[in-house]
From TrEMBL:
Native source species: Chelonoidis abingdonii (Abingdon island giant tortoise)
TM stretches of this protein: none
Region Disordered, residue ranges: 32-68, 80-123, 147-171
Low complexity: compositionally biased ranges: 39-51, 150-161
Record-linked Gene3D superfamilies: 3.30.300.30, N-terminal domain of ligase-like
Entry superkingdom: Eukaryota
Protein name per Swiss-Prot or TrEMBL: Disco interacting B
Residues of the DMAP1-binding domain: 15-99
Name of the coding gene: DIP2B
SMART domains, alphabetized: DMAP_binding
SUPFAM superfamilies per record: Acetyl-CoA synthetase-like (SSF56801)
Length: 1263
């Protein structure tokens, strides 16, 4: 009776909970019912006429990238369902996730022994039999409902109340024989001895012969066996349970989701790469050949802003000017003994997009000089979107030189002194102008070293990842040459042909076709810059018509813009085009632009087989391309796929609802000499099945070789060995991940459905950001938002990704129109993609961060969204439609839980687990730093490589920099101090030297005095100087450290030297027994005759003395290897590199404070902003104002600093309200109080300060 009452109470609670959910404000219950039961309605709108192509072109860099009339009809049909519905708020209907198990499924089944008690006939045997049969029917209904995954309380109540209405058929044995007992959520407890169990019917289980037998004894034996199998103590991993499983409901896979059914795919090979007798051994050899034998043949023609040719570069001019630049780079930038550039060094190429001639000369000049070029975009302002990440790439590549033109150099932002500003995150660069008048002519006997192409790096192409980080894809010389050969064979290039390039010539297909392959085949390239396309969209079509071009390199946006401007000029002919290469053909929405352009220009001579979409990526380079020659079985194909199937990663031909269909076109066959396979995008690289979507991987000699300086990421991308379903490797040939999602269709044609960077995984289903953008643009967006300025990304909320849509609103759009458009977009996405949108925000025009070519910078937009700095003018958030894994109700832990066991073991003194960091020996780092075993060698190397790089910046109480220290200044001052020790100290090897300096002089004297003392094989001891007004209490501590360390010398200032020998000091200690005292205020300009290098890194470097609050003196011996390991660990943990800034407010005399002040900056190369803690006594706001002014991410402080700030901020609230603090990592150097840390972390939020971060990370380092 007790079990039944509990179960009925659970049903009543669940039913009331459902009614409460249905009455949720803003959601109409009728809409919920209709959205589940309504069948798809036919399309309510007719297909748009062809005049739609003649509308005025709207602004944006990606206007018609997602244009599709079929998709527009699908969106309109989906919105027609909601046309007559009245909504309380502009929100889509609420949908329950099918992946989250309902709480009703976790309830126990109804008690099968209590149904007959409702009739009051327990005394009659006939009624008992009928009731028992009814109970069995209820149990069967419960099992069937559990299998079907029903989550509504109405089905449970109907099964309980209307179970008697079913007909009784079959015997009791048949019922039990057809019932699976393991489907019960909780097994029956046969050990209970309650009164209800005595009156219940006996339990029967099917025997092998089908005869019901009693199972009371067998169940007890089974429970006994399970108890014996259970270990006495849970394994260690059970003590650490992820909060994800305890807090929220774990998403369960949908049992009805489509699964791949085909066989495992086999790698697809491309056609063999042919061998041509006149192919050069290297690309530089091809330039030399054409430059000397065909000097007057045109190589590159640049257009002006009006679309007219302004300059033609011949092969002879290209060869001579590249030769002059190569000679200048190697011989004229430095001295003969110390050249600035050597073969193998990296240089940056900073050229505007409208000057392809100067870029081509610089690129080939670097190749001839065997210098590795790194093309980047021209920085416009100091705070360009993504500019800091570009600076990180330049710093990791060790770039100190940038090549540019005189015009571009004059256009860079300057300081008031006329110098180029220091761009945020960039290393200090030396700018070299490559104009001919600044170059030196090479002697006749000087020739560049042109050898056969090998595996040495040729150039580095930058790539921006999904998270916004910039990585450099290194391309070898043999890969560059092989890729040109493969493109020549695939595109059937021949000498003297003319090609039109509308792409960016610094990267991707624009560089491969327009700058590299054209030189190999002696082609003539007409480069149409992006600025010309804005003013004259038909300029590339006119160039094809005028020069009878055979090949054109375009994007979908160029096709659309040409169609919009077609009415301006009709007398053009495209009959000469053999290939119209659409380089973003990998975009699934490119098929509409290609079909529309063909239908419009077919009357102008454009052949259908000339449309050649291709798929490219920075890592794999050209993945596939459709050939321009008609071959048997090579006709263009399209596939109409189900978006629902694509979200589950399978290929299903759409046959049900055309509104949720995606039409994709093939991108041709695999490149010559290549091999392709499809692997799962997550986990191990397992080969996909033939009807499964995966990441395209390519194996050939034409791809990139590595991410420069990123060994770990390189191995996961460029060294992939596919495995089969059993986990065994399939061959030993490494593949390269392309970052493209697709499959191989009939006839070995390659289809691409999206990119890894645009993948949004929500509740186990995959959605493509480009598909979401296309759906949003199909909802009459021309009057509300700019079509090319929409960003779609995902954020993590409750352990799952949530979709966010951000768009720029037009200035003339009203609030009512905006909210109407947003509500319709949410409805369209909900209907077509079956996914909810977490947030849709409209921001003012021109407020989103842009890329150099005008597109939206997605990662920077996401960062602004997370920081709360988007400042939207209209926003619509619908968390109830997508957050379906809400937290589970709290449950009391039965018995002793894992936390109690952990506490008990800790109290008993048992160490149940330990934490270990990464192995420093196995982690790759900058080779230029790792090859030095001593910090003095690192300092000497930095003084030579980056002499003007500022390592330290010391602030006074007003927050003004009082002095800075560069690498060269520190090295020279350290040499002077070391020479003083040699001359005046009369020291022996192994002696200890006490360094006695105030924090104000630490940066210039103490820091590298101790380092150079190490060079002299002297052990340094840093000591806090005594206080002049309290010598009686502070001087004995100094004396104690001097005596314990057995110091042979004291280095200090003149002021402190007089204080140590004063009468006041004589009253506290014996001043006559001080060791030799040397002041370092006036240092001679004398260098060391030689620098001593210890024979082994295990030798002693310095002594670290610290005094506790109880007066106990502790000393630690630090070796050179320990110092290097400590600095290396801090660098890796805090992600320190040359362009980083950290703020340090610590005492620089021992422990972590001494390491951060004195050693880490030399090892890592970052800039340390030094704040003496004593300065906070006169200016409590000094530390926080420094963090705010310099936008510091990591700051190190002590407990006393935090205490001073929290106690003294009460009078500074009004000042703090006008400042914004970036996301910070507060690191304390001692075991601070948790209450103090948490109070400090909550202090800004509790006083409503403008914190740009939603959380404060508080880290405590114990040393």
């Amino acid at each position: 009776m007790l079990c039944k009452s509990r179960w009925l109470c659970g049903l009543v609670f669940f039913k009331s909970l459902k009614e409460l959910w249905i009455r949720f404000p803003g959601v109409d219950p009728a809409l919920q019912k209709e959205s589940r039961n309504q069948t798809p309605a036919p399309a309510a709108t007719s297909a748009p006429s062809s005049s739609k192509y003649h509308r005025a072109r709207s602004g944006g860099a990606r206007d018609e990238r997602y244009r599709s009339d079929i998709h527009t009809e699908a969106v309109q049909a989906a919105l027609a369902k909601h046309k007559e519905q009245k909504m309380a708020l502009p929100m889509p209907t609420k949908r329950r996730s099918t992946f989250v198990q309902s709480p009703a499924d976790a309830c126990t089944p109804p008690d099968t022994s209590s149904a007959s008690e409702d009739e009051g006939s327990l005394r009659r045997q006939a009624a008992l039999s009928a009731a028992l049969h009814q109970s069995l029917q209820n149990a069967e209904s419960w099992i069937n409902r559990s299998i079907q995954g029903s989550s509504t309380s109405s089905s449970a109540s109907s099964t309980l109340s209307h179970g008697e209405g079913k007909g009784t058929s079959g015997t009791l044995a048949d019922v039990f024989a057809n019932t699976r007992i393991e489907n019960f959520s909780i097994p029956p407890d046969v050990t209970a001895t309650t009164s209800s169990s005595s009156s219940s019917a006996p339990e029967f289980f099917p025997s092998p012969l089908g005869v019901p037998v009693s199972s009371r004894v067998s169940t007890k034996i089974q429970q006994l066996l399970n108890t014996l199998k259970r270990p006495k103590r849970p394994p260690l991993k059970e003590f650490f349970v992820d909060d994800f499983e305890e807090i929220v409901e774990v998403p369960q896979p949908d049992p009805n989701q489509p699964k791949p059914e085909g066989r495992q795919m086999t790698p697809v090979k491309g056609e063999p790469l042919g061998v041509v007798c006149n192919w050069p051994p290297a690309l530089e050899a091809a330039l030399q050949r054409w430059g000397t034998t065909q000097a007057k043949c045109p190589c590159l023609t640049a257009l002006d802003v009006t679309g007219k040719p302004v300059y033609t570069l011949t092969y002879g001019k290209l060869w001579s000017r590249s030769l002059k630049l190569a000679y200048t780079l190697l011989n004229k930038l430095g001295t003969k003994n110390e050249p600035v550039l050597k073969p193998g060094d990296r240089v940056a190429l900073v050229f505007p997009n409208n000057d392809p001639v100067m870029f081509m000369v610089a690129f080939y000049g670097c190749l001839l000089a065997e210098v590795i070029p790194v093309p980047i975009e021209v920085p416009l302002t100091r705070k360009d979107a993504g500019g800091q990440q570009i600076g990180f790439l330049l710093g990791s590549c060790g770039i100190t030189l940038a090549l540019t033109t005189e015009v571009c150099l004059k256009g860079l932002p300057k300081t008031q002194n006329g110098e180029i500003v220091q761009f945020k995150g960039w290393p200090r660069l030396k700018w070299v102008v490559t104009d001919s008048k600044y170059l030196s002519k090479s002697p006749k006997d000087w020739q560049p070293n042109i050898s056969t192409a090998g595996t040495e790096p040729a150039y580095i192409e930058y790539k921006t990842s999904k998270e916004g980080s910039v990585m450099g894809v290194t391309v070898s010389r043999i890969a560059m040459l092989s890729h040109c050969q493969a493109l020549s064979q695939a595109c059937n290039y021949s000498e003297g042909e003319t090609i039109v390039n509308v792409l960016d010539f610094k990267k991707d297909a624009g560089l491969w076709h327009g700058m590299l392959t054209n030189v190999m085949n002696k082609l003539h390239t007409l480069s149409v810059p992006y600025s010309v396309m804005k003013t004259c969209p038909l300029s590339w079509v006119q160039r094809v018509h005028t020069h009878k071009a055979k090949v054109a390199l375009v994007k979908c946006r160029d096709l659309h813009w040409a169609m919009m401007a077609h009415r301006d000029q009709r007398d053009v002919s495209l009959s000469s085009l053999r290939m119209l290469i659409v380089t973003d053909g990998a975009n699934p929405w490119s098929v509409s632009s290609c079909d529309a352009f063909l239908s419009l220009f077919q009357s102008h001579g454009l052949k259908p087989e000339a449309i050649c979409p291709c798929a490219t990526s920075p890592e794999a380079m050209t993945v596939a391309i459709r050939r321009g020659i008609v071959r048997p079985g090579s006709h263009a194909r399209t596939a109409i796929l189900s978006m629902s199937g694509l979200s589950y990663g399978v290929i299903r031909v759409n046959t049900e609802d055309k509104n949720s269909a995606l039409t994709v076109q093939d991108v041709g066959h695999v490149m010559p000499g290549g091999m392709m396979c499809i692997v799962k995008p997550d986990g191990s690289p397992q080969l996909c099945k033939t009807d499964e979507i995966g990441e395209i991987c390519v194996s050939s000699r034409t791809g990139g070789m590595l991410y420069y300086g990123l060994t770990g990421v390189t191995k996961n991308t460029f060294e992939v060995i596919p495995v089969n379903s059993a986990g065994s490797p399939v061959g030993d040939v490494p593949f390269v991940r392309s970052g493209l999602l697709g499959f191989v269709g009939p006839g070995s044609l390659v289809f691409v459905v999206g990119k890894i960077d645009g993948l949004l995984t929500v509740s186990g289903r995959r959605h493509n950001a480009d598909d979401i953008v296309a759906t949003g643009l199909a909802v009459e967006s021309i009057k509300t938002v700019y079509r090319g300025r929409i960003a779609v990304f995902s954020v993590s909320v409750f352990y799952d990704e949530r979709i966010v849509v951000v768009a720029e609103q037009r200035p003339d759009a009203s609030e009512e129109d905006s909210f109407q458009w947003m509500s319709r977009v949410l409805q369209a996405i909900d209907s077509i993609h079956q996914v909810g949108v977490y947030c849709l925000a409209l921001v003012p025009a021109n407020s989103l961060p842009k890329t150099p070519l005008g597109g939206i910078h997605i990662s920077q937009t996401k960062q602004h969204f997370l920081e709360g700095s988007l400042h939207p003018c209209n926003i619509l958030m619908c968390p109830h439609t997508c957050v379906t894994n809400l937290p589970k109700p709290r449950q009391k832990q039965p018995g002793v839980g894992p936390a109690s066991v952990m506490v008990g073991n800790l109290v008993a003194g048992k160490r149940i687990a330990q934490a270990a960091g990464r192995d420093l020996g196995q982690i790759e780092d900058n080779d230029l730093v790792r090859k030095h075993q001593f910090l003095t060698e690192v300092l000497q190397w930095r003084a030579q490589a980056t002499p003007d790089h500022v390592l330290f910046l010391l602030l006074n109480a007003k927050g003004t920099p009082v002095c800075t220290a560069t690498c060269l200044q520190l090295h020279k001052r350290a040499e002077r101090i070391a020479s003083v020790l040699y001359d005046k100290g009369h020291l022996n090897a192994g002696d200890n030297v006490v360094l006695l300096y105030p924090p104000g002089k630490v940066m210039l004297a103490l820091i590298f005095a101790c380092i150079q003392a190490v060079v002299c094989w002297l052990h340094s001891v840093t000591v806090r100087p005594p206080h002049a007004q309290n010598l009686t209490a502070t001087l004995p501590t100094v004396r104690m450290i001097v005596d314990v360390s057995k110091a042979a010398c004291i280095l200090t200032t003149q002021t402190l030297m007089r204080l140590l020998k004063s009468r006041e000091a004589a009253a506290a200690v014996d001043v006559k027994t001080w060791p030799t005292i040397i002041d370092t205020d006036d240092l001679p300009r004398k260098r060391l005759p030689q620098i001593y290098k210890p024979p082994t890194p295990e030798m002693l470097a310095y002594l670290d003395f610290s005094v506790s609050t109880t007066g106990m003196l502790t000393g630690v011996k630090m070796s050179h290897s320990a110092v290097n390991a400590l600095c290396r660990a801090i660098k890796l943990q805090c992600e320190l590199y040359s362009s980083r800034q950290i703020a340090i407010c610590l005492d620089p005399y021992c422990g972590l404070g001494f390491t951060l002040w004195c050693l880490c900056s030399v090892y890592s190369g970052h800039q340390s902003i030094l704040i003496p803690p004593m300065e906070l006594e006169s200016n409590l706001f000094l530390w926080l104002s420094t963090v705010s002014q310099y936008k510091i991410r990591d700051t190190f402080c002590s407990y006393s600093v935090m205490e001073l700030c929290t106690k003294g901020l009460g009078n500074q609230i009004e000042v703090l309200k006008v400042r914004t603090f970036s996301p910070l990592n507060f690191c304390t150097t001692n075991s601070t109080k948790c209450s103090e840390i948490l109070y400090f972390a909550r202090y800004p939020q509790s006083h409503r300060l403008l914190c740009s971060s939603a959380k404060l990370v508080v880290l405590s380092i114990f040393l």
